[in-house]
Specification:
The protein is an alpha/beta fold. It contains twelve helices and eleven strands. The longest helix is centred in the middle third of the chain and has 25 residues.
């Protein structure tokens, strides 16, 4: 039995997403993916795994078959759609540029043998890099299997300073911002060119069949889109953010039709004004972080985002899987328009999800 998603559903996804991105949709987007249904096909030979890089010995076709099995056990409700992405960990561009990718039991890590001298760092794009080649082979196998029925998202390219921090960890990079600011800016410019090379490379691999663009955040865009970030920014001041981060975010967002920013942790709230100043940045995904009150407890952050005319993304998983999060945020803001709510749930929640969709006039 094929993945339970028809071509006419793709038409609806495109239409409603297009209206949402342009502010013409009078309701929120609700992307509900429920797992646990009968796949209607034999189980995959591979175990389920969050990180694709952990499948070190599996063929690309076996990896794609595992994805197909997962998708076959999923029901897509509301504005949801089938999508996959090769997850080799955040900052995988660092591996493309020579860092070591280290698979650990519950994560992926990137490292170098020793911190490099900033003046000696060089960035060479290598289309035969083994990590890049592995992702490319998996993407091509997915494209061959599904022929556009499933959206193949771009792997997590991370942020520019996050990539640089793999080669100049922690304190070294912080001191560099003070001691060698112009050299840092040169590296940012060079890394941004490499970032775009890899973005374009992955986009071109699937251009003939892919129904749109997606990243790790579960959203859909018919035209070029990405979730931008700079996790390193929690360690720097607003002035430094404006000097070293904001310009490259502006340049990248200007090249994308739809750009979002992943704002991770309370330490990034001080940069919110600088983010909201970026006209081409369409929206903000706010992640309070481990040990912090969940997304229902930050109305002032969401009000600032909304008042700046930006879009908002929230996940049910950011509030113990509660479907009440959208209702609470809607009450706080006075409207649900401009919000995309990603529901990650299971079969037993289907009736609850259907009631949620009905409340917000979202076709099921």
């Amino acid at each position: 039995m094929p993945i339970k998603f028809e071509s006419q559903q793709w038409d609806q996804v495109r239409k409603h997403a297009r209206q949402w991105w342009t502010g013409e949709l009078d309701r929120p987007l609700i992307l509900a993916r429920l797992q646990g249904y009968d796949a209607g096909r034999p189980a995959s030979e591979l175990p389920d795994c969050e990180y694709t890089s952990h499948y070190t010995e599996a063929s690309p076709e076996a990896v794609v078959d595992r994805w197909d099995y997962n998708l076959s056990r999923t029901r897509f409700l509301g504005d949801a759609f089938p999508t996959v992405r090769p997850n080799f960990g955040a900052c995988v561009v660092a591996a493309f540029l020579g860092a070591q990718l280290v698979n650990r039991p519950d994560t992926v890590w990137f490292q170098t043998d020793r911190p490099a001298n900033l003046a000696e760092l060089e960035w060479r794009v290598d289309s035969e890099n083994p990590v890049f080649s592995r992702i490319r082979d998996i993407v091509q196998a997915a494209q061959g299997r599904w022929q556009g029925d499933v959206l193949i998202g771009i792997t997590d390219l991370s942020g520019i300073l996050d990539i640089l921090s793999v080669f100049r960890p922690g304190e070294e990079l912080l001191l560099d911002l003070y001691d060698q600011p112009e050299l840092i800016k040169q590296h940012i410019c060079q890394l941004q060119k490499a970032w775009w090379h890899y973005f374009d490379s992955f986009a071109s691999l699937t251009a003939a069949t892919n129904p749109g663009y997606a990243a790790w955040d579960s959203m859909y865009s018919e035209t070029p889109f990405y979730m931008l970030q700079c996790d390193f920014a929690y360690m720097i001041s607003p002035a430094m953010f404006r000097e070293f981060v904001q310009p490259e975010l502006i340049a990248t967002a200007d090249r994308l039709d739809n750009a979002f920013y992943h704002m991770d942790g309370p330490g990034q709230i001080r940069h919110l004004d600088a983010l909201l100043e970026i006209d081409s940045l369409k929206g903000i995904q706010w992640v309070p972080g481990a040990g912090q009150p969940d997304i229902r407890h930050w109305p002032e952050v969401y009000r600032r985002i909304r008042e700046a005319g930006k879009l908002i993304q929230i996940f049910s998983s950011q509030c113990d899987g509660s479907l009440d999060a959208l209702d609470i945020l809607t009450d706080q803001l006075g409207t649900a328009e401009g919000i995309v709510f990603v529901v990650e749930g299971f079969k037993h929640q289907e009736e609850e999800v259907l009631r949620l969709l009905e409340r917000y006039n979202v076709p099921s």
